Amino acid sequence: MSNEEPMSGIHDCGADAAAYALGALEPDEAERFKVHLEDCVVCRDELAAFQQVTGALPMAAPQHAVPRRLRRRVLSEVRSDARLREPHAAARTGPRIRPAWAGALAGAVAVAVVVVIAVGSGSSTRVISASVGHAQLRISGGHAELIVDRLPQAASGHIYEVWLERAGGQPQPTTALFGVTHSGTADVGVPGNVHGVSEVMVTQEPAGGSPHPTTDAVIVAHL
Question: Does the domain made of 125-222 have the CATH classification 2.60.40?
Answer without folding.
Answer: yes
